[in-house]
Amino acid sequence: MRLRTIVRLTVAALIVLHVGHPIGPDFTTGEEPGSARAALPPPEPVAASAPGRVEPSSEERDLAATAVGDLTYVADEGEKVAAGEIVAEIDNADLKAQLAAAEAQIQLRESELERLMNGAREETRQQAAAAVAEADAAVHLAQVIMERRRPLAESGFASAETFDRARADFDSATAHRRRLSEELALLNAPPRPEDVAIAKANLQIARSDADALRAAIEKTRLRSPVDGVVLRRYRAIGETVSIQPATLIATVGDIRRLRVRADVDEADVTQVAVGQKVWVTADAYGDRRFHGTVASVGKRLGQKQIRTDEPTEKLDTKVLQVLIDLDETAQLPVGLRVDVFFEPISANAVAEKD
Predict the structure, then answer these.
(1) Residues with Cβ < 8 Å from 146, sequence gap 6 or more?
(2) Model confidence pLDDT, tens digit, residues 252-286
(3) CATH number of residue 302's parent domain
(4) Is 163 part of any domain?
């Protein structure tokens, strides 16, 4: 493709070289050779040319499987997608069920921690306080009875056994009152730090389990990294995908603006600069030209990435990759091979671009 274009330019140049010395009269004008008339316009000057390929302004973004399973959704080719929108999804019903159980566990652990921090209910505290008050009355009564029987026992009007029984009742009532008082104090006391730490740890474990499941579910969803369209769909719903090797599922890209990636021969690298004007042709579009501007120039020579399929093409040539932003009016299919022609470098144009 590049060779044919260069041949056309060479033929045009040869015609121009002979315009100054035409052979025979000009039958279109009737003028004799050497007569004063406007010469044919010279071919547009070209600083360098290179093969290129059309790509989205965002570059083509391949989306490959990050989980093993059957596809339950794949966007159609040509479908518009926003950045972050799901392009494909792998079956994750089992993970969603596990996530629901994990979220229920979180609620349980949160309730346990809240109950621990809030302590007993107010009704429970009131009941405990009433029991302590009742125990106080029992202790007081037992003490009164014991004190009444003490002098009787000492004077012999009552047996020692009677006094011992009254003292035992007093001691029992006192012990019972002490136990109820301790229970009330426990209800009113704040939770122990170690109990709070255990409850918080259990809650954190439950949340971590849920986060792990959400991450696993997210791996089954392939999202578009850019605003654009689905350029190619490689798999259909129901097909099984794997991660060893990763199954390519779809390719997306932003085609609102197009650019061309060109392989500039190492002999022409000094003829290319950012801001330089170019035009692009393709066999499918005849002589139609698509204009653009050099957006970036590579910093390192490498192997050719674009093949022209010309018989004389050298595959071992080192090239420099150059990115060209096409004008907004350019409408070309992504992946189209084109010929890129660089106009002579304009210092003013380059300065404006910089």
Answers:
(1) 163, 166, 167, 169, 170
(2) 999 999 999 999 999 999 999 999 999 999 999 99
(3) 2.40.30.170
(4) yes
β pairing state of 86-90 and 221-223: antiparallel
If you average pLDDT over residues 166-174, what whole number do you get? Answer: 88
Place of tokens 């300065």: 351
Nearest to 90 by CA among 214, 211, 222: 222
Residues forming a β-bridge with 86:
223
Please check whether residues 231 and 158 belong to one and the same domain. Answer: no
Number of domains in the chain: 4
Sheet holding 69-74, edge to edge: 221-223, 86-90, 69-74, 240-241
Burial string for 209-229 (b: 16+ CB within 10 Å, else e) reads bbeebeeebeebbbbbbbbbb
Contact 57, 323 (CB under 8 A): no
| Residue 72, domain extent | 63-91+221-252
181 shares a domain with 146: yes
List Cα–Cα distances, 162 to 138, 141, 165, 176, in angstroms.
18, 16, 5, 21
For residues 107-137, b (16+ Cβ closer than 10 Å) or e, as one string?
eebeeebeebeeebeeeeeeebeebbeebee
Strands ordered across the beta sheet of 228-233? 61-64, 248-253, 228-233, 80-81
Question: What average pLDDT does the structure give for the chain?
Answer: 82
Q: Which pLDDT belongs to residue 152? A: 76
Cβ atoms of 318 and 40 within 8 Å: the answer is: no
Question: Based on the domain organization, do 231 and 83 belong to the same domain?
Answer: yes
In a domain, 216, yes or no: no
pLDDT of res. 75: 97
Task: Please name the residue ranges forming H helices in 220-322.
Answer: none
Q: Identify whether residues 10 and 74 lie together within a single domain.
A: no
How is the chain split among helix, strand and coil, in percent rounded to 5?
40, 25, 35
List the CATH number of the domain containing 239.
2.40.50.100
Q: Are residues 79 and 149 in the same domain?
A: no
**Residues 277 and 293 sit within 8 Å (Cβ to Cβ):** yes
Q: How many residues does the chain have?
A: 354
311 shares its domain with 273: yes
